[in-house]
Each structure stands twice: as structure tokens, then as C-alpha cells.
Fold:
Amino acid sequence: MELRTIRDADLKNKKVLIRVDFNVPLKDGVVTDDTRIKAALPTIKYILEQEGTSLVVMSHLGRPKGEKKPEFSLQPVCKKFSELLGRPVKMASDVIGNEVAEEVKNLKAGEVLLLENVRFYPGDESKDAAVKEEYSKTLASYGDVYVNDAFGTAHRAHASTEGVAHFLPSYAGFLIEKEVKFMAPLLENPEKPFVAIIGGAKVSSKITVLKSLARTCDTIVIGGGMAYTFLRVLGHSVGKSLVEEDFLDTAREFLDAAKSAGVKVILPVDHVAAEAFDENAKPVYVDGYDIPENLMGMDIGAKTVALVVDALKSAKTVVWNGPMGVFEFASFAKGTEEVAKALSESDAITVVGGGDSVAAINKFGLASKISHVSTGGGASLEFLEGKTLPGIAVLVK
Ligand code: ADP
Ligand code: MG
Structure:
């Protein structure tokens, strides 16, 4: 998958309209985590370094649901953005309207204007094609060139993420370029051996990604809550563990298909269990596949971790999506932490995607030792599922 990137674009003397993900957490009108703003800076700085460029920046913030709600204003973000960029950023009065059009028109070379929250109007997320098109055209009128660097919303066909691309020459920023550079090979031609580690709560939410990765990987580790549905299918007792009764057939079919395809599946061979799903529940070590009637599996055990570590030894590519246990509870976080450590120590190309898995990697302070930590929760999952992301499809060469 080859993208048109800002390196391919002729930006000289152009007004550049860029979609970023400045959907940052706020408390009392102050940005509490500026990671996403910082992440967009390389692309923004690159554009501003080109001769004669000016920049119109757009983002969503929270869920104002098509209404102009002051608590979702990008004003506080503008302040932080300006600080981090090291130059003034003008805050637009709105997203659309004559006043904004004037503000955009008056923008001089080297200047930066941040539009208000694109979700202040229903046009951004609208399912009505005509409404979306009209909004897209208005946004497109603000620039000569469109750049998208908001990977986290690339799975949404919104006006600001996809619609505008139909009305302007459009290019990927560095963030989207990096996401695709690391994720596309996983589905196309990964360096082998390729190990996929999939966990999380439910088979239902991960079955598509399992099937997708099974096409290219050599080994799949299945951990987390969803492992028990698979163990049940294989005839093991799983006690009170999470089991999706409606997905037993799906799980069985997957195991059969993996076997025929020669994909090795690793399931937990030991567990850390508890009597109840509770932060303070007493952890009980359970050796072997089977879990006693009164217990539920909360984490993978040390022997399972050793199997994962062993599988990673020869791996050239590893992808991880979904925690191995209830890592939010200290007593049941070890399996996830150990797997995260193994990934961080691996010489392979390592990719971590998924909201909770990324949270876990950050919690354990290991993000800098991973080749690529995806910036999209839902978007990275859909990418790994092999789905076409509308915001990226419009940027493909
Ligand atoms: P991601 O966001 O990385 O894609 P998921 O959302 O699929 O991951 O799954 C994360 C959730 O799975 C976590 O909240 C975690 O507590 C839960 N989970 C992991 N193992 C278990 C388990 N054994 N029982 C119940 N829930 C679990
Ligand atoms: Mg999640």
C-alpha cells in the first residue's frame, strides 16, 4: 500500500488544510495530556518550513454531537498547540460562516489558524451524503491542498477525514505514513517468523483480527478473557471464566482453519485465577489447562508467559493486540506486563495496537522500546482486520 505523502506534494505558496487528532483530555480548561499535539508537530513543522505556506488546522474534540457546545471548544488546545509549536496560532471564531471564511482569506504566509471543533456541525459525521458533501466542500474551500494526519479517525468516513479529499489534492502526513509503513506489511508480506499475540476480553470483538492475521502469521498466541472460549471448545473446564456461548462454533472453526493452514496456536497452559471479578480478589495459581468450578481465569500464568517468550525468540515480526489478563487489577497484571517486556526485549519488528494494549505498554513504561505503538484504537484494530480505512483509501497512490 503506497500513499501520497506530503513529501510528494508541491506546497510552495500553498494554503494547506490539515486534519489532525487534537482530541486531547482536558481538565478545568487545561490540556492534561499533550501527546497527540506533540505527535502532529513533525508534519506541521515540515509544512511550515516550505516556502510561502500557511496552515488551516482542523480537529474534533470529544462528542459535541453536531452542536456548538462551549465545553468542547478547541480554545484551550489552541493555547497549548501554540506553546508547543513555538509560534502564534490564531483561534478561528467558528468552523463555517462568513467570519471564518474571512479569517482564512486573511491568513498570510507562515501563519497558522486553528478552526473550531469540526463536530460542532452535523456535517462532519453525517450519514446524509448531501449534507456531508456540502460540509466537505466548505472545509475544502479553506485550502489549496489537504493533508490528513489523524490516524485515530481514519476508520471514519467523515467530512474532515475523507470528504474533503474528494475536492482537494490530498496527502498523508508523517503519522499516517508511519502507521501504514508498520501495519500494512503485517497483512501483506511480514518478515517471518511472524507471531501474533491476541488477547482482550472477547472472541466476538477479536475474531476478525484473528482470521485476518492467521493468513500471514506462523504462530498465534491467544490470551486474555477470550482464551477461555477456546479452551472450552477443546474440552477443558474453565470454571467461572468468561465464555461466549454464542461463539463456541466460531472458535472451533477458527482452530480448525488455523490447523489446516499450519498456523501454530498457543493457548494458556496455566492461569492466575480468582473467585470473583474483583480488584481485591485473592489470586490463585492454577497449573494446567483446566480451571476449577469455583474460579475464573484472570491472567495467564508463568508457564504460558514462558511459551510466549520462547515463541518470540526466533520471531522477526510481532504484533500484539489485547491484554493477556485483567491488567487494570494489580494482582492480575503480571502476564500482560511480562509479555510487554518480552516484546520490548525482542529484536523483531514489534507493533502494538489497540486502546487497552497501548495503555498497558505506556503503564509499564515500555513504549519507547517498541518499533511502532499505534496511535489509533479502533482504527488500528480495523486496519489489522484487513478493512479498508476510508481516510486512508483516499490517500493511496
Ligand atoms: P484492546 O483495547 O487492546 O483492543 P480489548 O478492549 O479487546 O483490548 O480488551 C481489554 C480488556 O480485556 C481489558 O479491560 C481487560 O481487563 C480485559 N480482560 C483481559 N483478560 C481478561 C480476563 N481473563 N477476564 C476478563 N476480562 C479480561
Ligand atoms: Mg479496548
